[in-house]
Amino acid sequence: MSARRVFTRPARLAAIAPYLWMLLFFMVPFGFVLKISLSQTAIAQPPYLPLFDLSQGLAAIKDAAAMLSLDNFRLLASDNLYVLSYFRSLVVAVISTSILLVIGYPIAYGMARLPARWQPFAMVLVIIPFWTSFLIRIYAWINILQHDGLLNKMLLALHLVSTPVVWLSTDSAMYLGIVYSYLPFMILPLYATLALMDPALLEAAADLGAPSWRAFWLITFPLSLPGVGAGILLCFIPIVGEFVTPDLLAGSNALMVGQTLWLEFFTNKDWPVASAAAVVLLILLIPPLLLYDRLQRRQLEGGR
Amino acid sequence: MAESELAEEQTTAPRAPGQALLWIDSVVKSFGHHRAVDRLSLEIQAGEFFALLGPSGCGKTTLLRMLAGFETPDEGRILLGGNEIGSVLPHRRPVNMMFQNYALFPHLSVRDNIAFGLKRAGLPRADIETRVAEMVALVRLEGFEKRKPDQLSGGQKQRVALARALARRPQILLLDEPLAALDKKLRENTQIELMELQRRLGTTFIIVTHDQEEAMTMANRIGVMKAGRLEQVATPRELYEAPVSRWIAEFVGDINLFEGAATSRDADCVTVATGGMAIKAVHGGALPAATVSVAIRPEKIRLSPSDRPAQTGSRHPFNQLSGRIVEISYLGGQSIYSVRLDNGAILKSSVANATRAAVDSYSPGQPVIAWFAPEDCVVLAQ
Fold this sequence. Notes:
- The structure holds two protein chains of two kinds.
- By secondary structure, chain A is mainly alpha-helical.
- Chain A has 13 helices and no strands.
- Chain A has one domain (about 70-300): MetI-like (MetI-like fold, Orthogonal Bundle).
- In chain A, helix 1 (about 10-35) packs antiparallel against helix 13, helix 4 runs antiparallel to helix 10 and helix 12 (about 255-265) packs antiparallel against helix 13.
- Chain B folds into two domains: about 1-245, 3-Layer(aba) Sandwich (Rossmann fold), CATH 3.40.50; about 260-380, CATH 2.40.50.100.
- Chain B contains ten helices and 20 strands.
- In chain B, the strands form four sheets. Chain B has a six-stranded mixed beta sheet, with helices on both faces. In chain B, strands 13-12-11-14-20 form a five-stranded antiparallel beta sheet, with no helix packed on it.
- In chain B, strand 7, helix 6 (about 185-200) and strand 8 (about 205-210) form a beta-alpha-beta unit.
- The longest helix of chain B has 18 residues, at about 185-200.
């Protein structure tokens, strides 16, 4: 009857479940990708040189180790195409995430300030787009943005422009698509932190001489930072790896890394280079994750 | 600008006692169809410790929030030192509030919480430091300046909230159920601390509470609210000894009530017939026509075994009612005796357990005589 018994067997299983999940669905596939990235391309099925086979024993593994090469990574660094697409991915992610924050914060703030009975309704409105397939929604945007699409028709009807504007295949269209599709991921964590805030804190700030805008910057905003962090992370990371939206809405003169990856995999059939590109992408995303983790931990410690 | 505002506050000489600092004039506040505060008028003097007492939903918190500026009156005026403040925004009022759950800023340290209002007032840095140190000393939180609210106990949080609200040296400190979150022992100590602090600073305190003992202990004057109106405004002593209505009599403390008709009067004494008994009660003014209630506090009723006690201290003959003890509640310092009178009514008498022997003087079923002076009775209209 020791304290250990507090955690029953099912509870202990539940505790390791996330790690099992990570191992099965992240570490193992990532191991494959890493392995392929160290191999060489070949005309074969699958299209790379097999590195090692566990059934061949220890000697085979030693042979394979000698064959490992970092050539693919060297190629990534030397070819402008890859460097530029990484750079573009980061730029697009930074700009989109900033726009998302600027648009999402007021919406989340407004939602949190609604009368309690209206809040679930507002939440449904935010989530409703998810009921339609993402791809269909992007195609809908193509329809709206094309030469004789809804947007141009409206602008012409209102006499705001005299000739149709080119929207499609521009960066503006891509940003529009990205911001549109990621907005709920920004709003929901922000709303969650803002809705939890005690309204008495703002009254206390007002009582102590802070006009409402001051109270916002001194109280509301600092207290919503965990939500801001979560929203930024939830948007930034997938946007860096975006493929569909830039492919369908942006022009083809500059590629994001997701598009480059796709080209290497499916058009060039160069799996090792594509894998190397994926590994580098992952490594690029680790620092912001660690930073967020550290910030959050500091917040938790500060609050104790 | 802001700095001069606060400086002015500090230099304003305290108003002479007796001159109303706050004047609430026929204030009305409705939420939808519900009148939370209904044409309420009240004057509060500088230096008073005033308690707004009432059951939940009586409008006391709404009234306090109007004084802080979180609500605007629909009708009527609120004057502070002669200036109308009814529609002045909260951050521009020389009034501060201590919130029920303290509303401390969780991301700021004790020091920064206390300094918050001083920084908004634009006080020079050095002055802020001095004032914060002064406040920290006032509430005895030395050594806790760097802690965050989550690292404090309930009592410490309460003191930070108090220091933060007092730091700006408000003309009036509003306290919204300030002790509700503390346990009983701590609450009693804190009541005394608050009283001492108020006396030392001379700041006007207005406290909202639903705890009548708390109000009686701390306040100079109590306003009892019922359904948006002030039922009675009086000193704790008046409130307890001379309630103006049956509702007040029942709300404040324990009381025995006998309903009946006032039948005759003899000098300043009226006789009330109630359930086959006659009770004499001192009552000035006209003989009440309709049915009345005679109210008598349990501690003013003495018990004796069947023989008649010696009379002391009353110009009138004592009321004597006979009955049997049905229940005894021993509460330590006192015991409450429930007596079933001969006409079936239940009377409660509380007796101080002055000696150990006194504790065992009665047992259930024993016949007793309950006796009380007509001066101790209050005649209340229905």
